[in-house]
Amino acid sequence: MWTGEKMFEEKRKFKRFKGKEGAFAAFIRPNELINMGQIQDISMGGLCVRYLSTHENHEGYSGIKIFGTNDRFIHLDRVQCRIVYDHDVPEGSWEQISTRRCGVEFENLSVRHLSTLQEFIDNFCFHEDQCENS
Asked: Per-residue pLDDT tens for 78-131?
């Protein structure tokens, strides 16, 4: 019998990679940043970001910006996506500020976005042959 996590993992079209320190995503409206957080994991099909929020309203968001900085800076601007889930992470929340975990699925990626996304994953994610301390 499969566990719920195993069944969920099998439904994904793309392999997920754990984000390294310095990998971020920001929800944006036209000309305005809404929330920004650390990328937990990412694939060619979507990502999960952990962020701090005073509310859970992403109304009017126009997409996300993905960026990373370590030895180099890589960013993808205005990536269209849909929110799959967005929920509280109880162990990281305080009275007025909550820690949230949000999963998004990318939509309508251009060839340029796909190329830059692969470069981002190559530079800002852990792969099987790497340990988190490297």
From this structure: 899 999 998 888 775 666 778 889 999 999 999 999 999 999 999 999 876 544
Q: Token digits for 12?
A: 């994904």
CATH (domain of 84): 2.40.10.220
Residue 132 belongs to a domain: no
